[in-house]
Automatic annotation (TrEMBL):
Pfam families: Methyltransf_23. This is S-adenosyl-L-methionine-dependent methyltransferase. Gene3D superfamilies: Vaccinia Virus protein VP39 (3.40.50.150). It comes from the Eukaryota. PANTHER family: METHYLTRANSFERASE LIKE 7A, METHYLTRANSFERASE LIKE 7B. It comes from Ephemerocybe angulata.
Length: 269
């Protein structure tokens, strides 16, 4: 596919996003002009409005069969959902196997709908089966403190690692400290393309994209960070923490896509 087609695609995508999030965000800024002093908060509000305005449901629908294949048969025990957004992951949790849903979501504007999704899926804060962590995935010590240092059985990351500052270190610390031995890491992310022409456009578009989409980068090879991960063992030797690792692409996705996805299942030693 020609580069111009790729760029046209992303412009259309951006226009679609802007239409859904822009006017509700503008309304909020007019009501609270002090927001103009905090562009990062405007970006978070934009993201929450966009996700609530049907965009989140559309993205979920597009990834439904991937998530049904990835999350439903594999997630078990206590599940930590990184960047839980509006809780779409709850739609794929098998309640017979998932005893606790721990939603990590730093954008508090997303919390009301996230709480509702957890409640609708049968996870409640009152009995401890639902926990909401208002911090970033990179804040491992806060996560561990909130969980009383109890590691989780499953970590799910759906379209989130692209927004995490220092994703390589965050993945390392989450796997080393937060994921239990034998636990499973499930990943469904848009990543840096393996095609150099598409990767060029991803890098070109990222400076604007990151600003509008609350820190989301198009050029993040988080699939590689997970697959090639090494952690230090008890003897100080660096080695792979995985006893099983599997990476695959999204079915029927053209490889020219700027939001090119990879799906991964990693089982910890
Ligand atoms: C594209 S949305 C995906 C939401 C959800 N996982 C889903 O599939 O619908 C990215 C999410 O990552 C969250 N996020 C942003 N920075 C983050 C960070 N440092 N750590 C964890 N999540 C973050 C955003 O607030 C947002 O909810």
């Amino acid at each position: 596919m020609k580069a111009t087609t790729v760029v046209f695609g992303i412009l259309m995508h951006n226009w679609f996003c802007i239409k859904m999030g822009f006017f509700p965000t503008l309304k909020e800024v007019i009501a609270r002009p002090s927001l103009l002093l905090s562009p990062a908060e405007i970006s978070r509000i934009f993201m929450a409005k966009l996700w609530a305005g049907g965009f989140g449901d559309g993205i979920d629908e597009a990834g439904r069969s991937t998530k049904e294949h990835l999350i439903t048969p594999n997630a078990y025990g206590s599940v930590l959902d990184l960047g839980a957004g509006h809780g779409h992951t709850t739609l794929y949790l098998d309640h017979a196997k998932v005893t606790r849903y721990i939603a990590l979501e730093p954008n508090v504007n997303m919390h009301p709908l996230l709480r509702k999704a957890a409640f609708d899926a049968g996870y409640h804060e009152s009995d401890g089966s639902f926990v909401l962590l208002p911090c970033g995935a990179e804040e491992t010590s806060k996560i561990l403190a909130a969980l009383d240092s109890k590691p989780v059985d499953t970590i799910v990351s759906v379209l989130t690692l692209c927004s995490v500052p220092g994703p390589q270190k965050a993945i390392h610390n989450l796997v080393r400290d937060v994921l239990a031995p034998g636990g499973i890491f499930l990943l469904y992310e848009h990543v840096l393309s393996h095609r150099s022409d598409v990767a060029w456009w991803q890098r070109f578009c990222t400076p604007l994209w990151v600003y509008v989409m609350d820190g989301c980068r198009l050029d993040c090879p988080t699939d590689i960070y997970c697959a090639d991960l090494e952690v230090e063992d008890d003897n100080g030797v660096m080695s792979s923490p995985w006893k099983e690792k599997e990476l695959w692409g999204q079915v029927d996705e053209p490889e020219e896509h700027l939001l090119w996805h990879q799906v991964g299942k990693f089982v910890k030693n």
